[in-house]
Amino acid sequence: MDDPRGPGNPVTPLLVACALGIEQVALRSGRDAPGPVRVLRTGMGPRAAEAAVARLLGPGGFPDAAVIASGFCAGLAPGMHPGDLVVAEETRDADGTTPCAGTGVLVAALTRALPGRGVHTGPLTGSDHVVRGPERAALRASGAIAVDMESAATLRTALCHGPRPVAAVRVVVDAPEHELVRIGTVRGGISAFRVLRVVLPAFYEWHRSLLLPRR
């Protein structure tokens, strides 16, 4: 990919960070909107996300990039279905809370892009392991609507490298009534993959609306 900061393309770049190869494939295959974007596969877990994002936002990388954490998540709220979208109002983990920017813009853009799909907003909580059963119920009781392993670490690390818009958009791959055993082998995983393929234009709309001035 060309450096989005090069001559003739001065727009602040967009970094979309995901953990898994299947998520990266979905996001890249859905790149039907023009603009400077980097889809980064971080690897699984908060420590991997921190390290990968820090490298890319560091010297020689893309220090001015706006950042969206994306990929799959586990839904916590009753009535969620595989393929529903979660737009975080904030991300949470043991290291604190990170507010997200432009939630309304993302909700509106995703609703237009995916009419009929559920779009849920609320706190997205982080974990360092796959959460199941009673542990999910405890997280739901805390007010969280979904859980994943990388979003909170991704956004916190991004802001540690300077002020910028950050957001998290996840696709529900399993939910309380639709627990998943293995991504990609059941209907829920396939549904989530298809939804993830078409979210990127909504990310561009968010990006355009919240561009940071050049530093």
Number of helices: 7
- Output the structural class: alpha/beta
Taken as a percent bin, the fraction of beta residues is 15-25%
The coarse overall form would be globular
pLDDT averaged over residues: 85
Helix content: 25-40%
Q: How many beta-strand segments?
A: 8
Main sheet: strands, sense, barrel: 5 strands, mixed, barrel
* Unreliable stretches: 1-10, 181-186
- Terminal Cα separation, in Å? 23 Å
Q: How many whole angstroms does the radius of gyration measure?
A: 16 Å
The helix-strand sequence is EHEHEEEHEHEHEHH
Strand order of the largest sheet: 3-7-6-4-8
Q: What would you say this structure looks like, in words?
A:
Helix 1 links the parallel strand 1 and strand 2. The radius of gyration is 16 Å and the shape is globular. Helices cover 33% and strands 25% of the residues. The chain has a five-stranded mixed beta barrel with strand order 3-7-6-4-8, surrounded by five helices. By secondary structure, the chain is an alpha/beta fold.
